Amino acid sequence: MGETPFWRRYLRLWGSDPAADVEDELGFHLSMRVEDLIRQGRAPAEARAQAEREFGDVQRIRGEMNEIGRKRLKREGRAEWWGSVRQDLRFALRTARRSPGFAAVAILTLALGIGATTAIFTVVRQVLLRDLPFADPDRLVAAWAADPGHDQPHGMLAVPEFEEWRAQGAAFAGMAAYSALPTGLTLAEGGEPVRLRTAYVSADFFSTLGLHARVGRVILPAEHVPGRDRVVVLSYGLWRSRFGGDPGIVGRTLRLNDEPFTVVGVLPPDARFPGGDTEAWTPLTVVPESGIPRVWGVRWLNVVARLRPGVTVERARSDLAMVARRLEAEHRESNEGWSGATLVSLRDDIVGGVRGRLLVIFGAVLLVLVLACVNLANLVLARSSLRMRELSIRSALGAGRARLARQLLTESVVLALVGGALGVALAWWGAGALLALDADWQRLAGPVRMDWMVLAFALLLSALTGLGFGLIPATQRLEGIAETLRESARGTSAGARAHTLRSTLVALEVGLAVVLVAGAALLAESFVRLSRVELGFDADHTLYARITIPSSRYPTAEQYLPVAERMLAAVGRVPGVTEAAEIKDAPLRGAGERSYFEVPAHPARSADEQPVASYLPVSPGYFRTMGIPLKAGRDLTPQDGDEAAAGVVVSETLARSNWPTGAVGEEIVVGKTRARVVGVVGDARYTKVDDAATPVVYLPQRLMTRIIVTIVARTPGDPAVLLPAVRAAIRSVEPDQPITEIGTMRAAVSQALAAPRFLTLLVGLFGVLALVLATVGVYGVVAYVVGRRTNEIGIRMALGAGSREIVAWTLRTGMAPVLVGLASGLVAALALSGVLAAQLYEVSPGDPAILAAVTALLAGVSLLASGVPALRAARLDPVEALREP
Amino acid sequence: MPRNIIDAVQGTLDFLILKTLSWGEMHGYAVARWILDSSGAELQIEEGTLYPALHRLEDRGWVEARWGLSENSRRAKFYRLTPEGQRELAERVRDWERFTRAVAHVLAAAPQGA
Predict the structure, then answer these.
(1) Can you tell me the ipTM of this complex?
(2) DSSP per-residue codes, A641-680
(3) Are A7 and A31 in contact (CB under 8 A)?
(4) Sign of the dihedral defined by the CA atoms of residues A495, A501, A505, A506, in that order
(5) Which among A28, A55, A72 has CB closest to B74?
(6) pLDDT (tens digit, 9 = 90+) per residue, A240-293?
(7) Nearest residue, CB atoms, A28 vs list B29, B46, B52
(8) Does B92 touch chain A (CB under 8 A)?
(9) Contact at 8 Å (CB) between A884 and A791?
(10) How close, in Å, is residue B57 to chain A by CA atoms?
(11) Which pLDDT band holds residue A2 (cuts at 50, 70, 90)?
(12) Least confidently predicted of A25-34, A675-684, A706-715, A807-816
C-alpha cells in the first residue's frame, strides 16, 4: 500500500472525500512504522514487509473503515434532511401566522371540502362496500321469477314453485326462501304492543347464507314443522335495546302474536338481512295457511341461493329459466307467462337501488373539492407578489429550486392537513346527518363507523389536496425569481405568465361550476315535475291505518271480514271523519296483487298479450273517501260481492285499453270469477310516484279477503289531528291491535318523494357552493388584472380612453376565461349527462332550456363579478395611475 | 458486560484506547505504539484493528478527531477524549477494578476449616 494516489487528493476540492482520508490515515501509520523500523536498523524492504505484517489485513481494515464512514455519512444525511424538514415546518407555521386571514380561509375551505368528501366516502363505504356478514358472500345471488312478456323481471315465487326450483337447481349449492311481510310478529310484553320487523325464512336460510348466531343458535331445519316452529331468532340491535343484552335471552319465552315463542338465539350485529332493519327471524310455517295459501299462483317468497363453485350467474340463470319454462307448461293456470328467471348478485340486490344516487353525490362532492382547491390555488397565486421578493432573496442566498418548491409545498400541505383534521371532525357529524336524512342509506349502513380506512382516506385526500393547490403556484413562482432579481416584477413576462395561469384556473372553475349547477338545476326540475305528478287521489284530507287481522284469534278468512267491518264502522264514527272505507293497500303504500285477467269479448291470442292488472279488494265508498273520481257507472255495493253476480270497478287506463267503446257492463274474468264491470274510476298511483299509473281492478272484499287491511278516512280538516282518535277507534274493536302503519296520505306522498328530494337538496347545495366559489374566482382575477395593470390603464386614459372603453377592456380581459370555461363546462356537462339520467324524471340530461339557463346564470354572475373591479378601474385617477411603476 | 468473545475483545481495545488518550491528544500511530509498548509486547494485537476502533469511538462521541500536522510535518489525524469519553473511561476503570477484586477474592478464598 503506497501513499494516497495523487488524484484522490484533488478530489477534496469538490468537498470532503472520506475514502481519501482513510488512505491518508493508514498510509501515515505504515510510513511511520517503516521509519521506526529503519531507525532500529532494518533494511527498507524488510522494514516494509514487517510493518505490513504487523498491521494486519490492510484491505479488510480499509473496507471496515470505509463501511463505518459510509454509515456515518448516511446518518448525517438523514439528520440533515430531517433538520431541513423541521425548518420547513417552522417556516410554514410562521408564514401562516403572518397572514392569519388567508390561513383561516384556506383551512376553513379545506375543512369543508375534505369534511364533506370524507363524510360521503364514509356513507359510500358503509352502504356500498360493506362486508356482508355471510360466508363467501360473492357466491350468493337473489333469484326471481320473470315474466318477460309483461315486463316483470322481479316476480316472487309460490311455495310449490320454490320447492321445484330448489329440487332442480343443479347449479346451486343451496337455495332458501324468505318473506319480509309488512305484518311481522307483534310483541306483547306489557304496555304498548309493538310490531317487530320480521323475516319468515325457510329451513335452509341460515345454512345457505352461512349465517351463525352470536348467542345461542339459529333455527334448526327440524323446527320448520308446525308444532315445533314457534321459535324466533332476534337481531343484535333488538336484543340490546329491548332486552338489555340479557345473557339469559336464549330459552326465554316471548308472547308473539298472542302465542308463546321461544328465543333460540341472537344474530351478530351486522347480520342485517333481509332489509337492513329486520328484528326477528322465524320459520315460514308460522304464517298461517289461511293467511297465505301454499298454492300455485300465490306469489310471496323471495329466493336467495348460493352458486356452486365455478358456476357463473348466467349459467345458473338459464338453468332456472329452463325450470320456469317447464313449470309454465305444467301449471298453465298459475304460471302462464312466467317463463324466465332473473338472477342478481346478492350484493347488487341489497345496494343496487341506492348505488346510483350515492355515486352521483360522491361525484358532485369531489367536483366541489376540486373547485375549492382551484380557488385556493388562485388565492395563493394572488399573494405571490409579496412572497416573490422573499423567495428571490432566499434563492440568491443559495436555496436550490427544489428546496424552495419543497418549502412552498410544505406550507400548502400543512394547511391541508390542519384543514383535513378539522374536516374529519366535520365528517363524523356530517355522515351521521346524511344517514339520518336518508332512510334507505341508514337501513343499509347501520351506525356511523369512522375507522382506519376512513382516516386513511381523509389523510390521503388532505395530502393530495395540499399538493394540488400548492403545486401550481409553487412551480409558477420559481420561474419568476430570476426576473424578479433583475427588475421589478410588475409588467414583466413573469406577471403575464401568472396572469395566464390564473385565467386558466378561472376557466377551470367556471367549467366545474357549470357542471355542478347544471346537475343541480336538472335535479331540481326533475323533482318539481315529480312532486307535481297527478296522483289521482286527494292526499290532503285523507289518512290511512294499515292493520293485520290477528290470525291467532280469527284463523279463517270468513272471520276476517266481520272484524274488518267492525273496525271500519268504529273509525267512521270518529268525530271529524266524513267518510271511511277499506282497501288492502293504500296508494303509494303497496301495489295490490298483480295477476292476469281475461276479457271474454276479445280473448288474448297468446300469453304475452294476456292483460295484467293489480287487484285490490275495497269496501264500498272507497273512491269517495280517497277522492278518486268516478268516471262512468257506479261504486261497488255489498251485492257485488255475491259470486253469482259479481261486480268490479276498473281504472280508467284499463277500461280504455280493453273496451275502447265503454267498459261498464262488460264481462271480465278475474281468477276463477266471472264478473261485470260496474264502474270506471280515475287512475291513481299505487306503486311509486314516478311509475305510470297501473291498471287496477277493484274487487269487493268478499271476493278477495285478505288478512291485511288498510282503513282510509276522509276529513275536511287536517287529518293529522284525527290520528290518535282513529287509533283508539281501532283498538276499541280489538284491544292490543297492533297498527302496522298509520299516518296522513300527505305524509305518505312526502315519504315516497324523500329520496329524490334529498338528492336534489344536496346537489343543489353543492351547486350553490360551486357558484359562490366560481364567482369569487372570477372577481379575484379581474381585480388582480386591474391591480397589476394600473399603469397601463393610466396610459390608456391619458391617450383618450373614456371610462366606457376602460370598463369594456377590463370586462373583456375578465370574461375571456369565463367564456372558455362556460364552453368547456357545457361540453363536460353533456358528456356526463348519462350519469345523471337514471335519477331524472321526465327531464333529459341534455335539456337545452336548462343548460341555456345555467349558462346565462353563470355568465351573468361572472359579468357582475367582473363589473365591480371594472368600474373601479374606470374611476381611477389617471395621474395616480401613471405614477405607478 | 460484554455479550460474547468478540465484544469482549472489542471492549477491551476500546478501554485501552480511551485510557491512552487520557494522556493527551495523539495520532493513531502514537496510540498504537503506546499500547503495544506499555503492555511490554504481551498483548498481540494487529495494529490495524486500532483504526476501526478509533472511528467507532468517534461515532459514539467519546473521542473527537481533527486533521493536523505530525511532528515530521505529515498530514495526520489526531484524536482526543471528549468529556463523555472521560466519563466512560472512569466508569470502565471502576468496573474493571471491581471485577479484578472479585476474581482475586475467589482465588484467595479457601473452604472453611481446611
Answers:
(1) 0.86
(2) GSGGGEEEEEEHHHHHHH-TT--TT-EEEETTEEEEEEEE
(3) no
(4) positive
(5) A28
(6) 888 888 888 899 999 888 889 999 999 998 888 887 788 999 999 988 887 777
(7) B29
(8) no
(9) yes
(10) 11
(11) very low
(12) A807-816
Q: How far is CA A699 from CA A272, A291, A613, A620, A705, in A?
A: 37, 18, 12, 10, 10
**Residue in A21, A28, A56 nearest the CB of B48:** A56
**Total residue length of chain B:** 114
CA atoms within 13 A on the CB side of A815: 17
Q: What is the pLDDT of residue A191?
A: 63
Whether a cis peptide bond, with omega within 30° of 0, leads into A293 is: no
* Contact list, B28 vs chain A (CB under 8 Å): 25, 28-29
**Cα A693 from Cα A628, distance rounded (Å):** 13
* A–B CB contacts, 8 A cutoff, strictly below: 57
Locate A734 and state its grid cell. 280489538
Q: Cβ contact (<8 Å) for A29 and B29?
A: yes
Mutation site, B10, B27, B29, interface A, largest A CB count within 10 A: B29
Interface contact flag, B28 A29, Cβ < 8 Å: yes
Give the chain B residue nearest A23 (alpha carbons): B76
Q: Is B66 helix (H, G, I), strand (E, B) or coil?
A: strand
Cross-chain Cβ contact B47/A54 below 8 Å: yes
Establish if A26 touches chain B: CB-CB under 8 angstroms: yes
For B69, counting Cβ atoms within 10 Å of its Cβ (0-12 exposed, 13-18 middle, 19+ buried), the class is exposed
In 3D, which of B23, B40, B33 has the Cα closest to residue B79?
B23
C-alpha cell at B69: 500536522
Give residues with Cβ within 8 angstroms of A172, minimum separation 6. Answer: A166, A305, A306, A307, A308, A311, A316
Does the predicted model carry a pTM greater than 0.80? no
Nearest to A68 among B56, B70, B75 (CB): B56
514487509: which residue's cell? A49
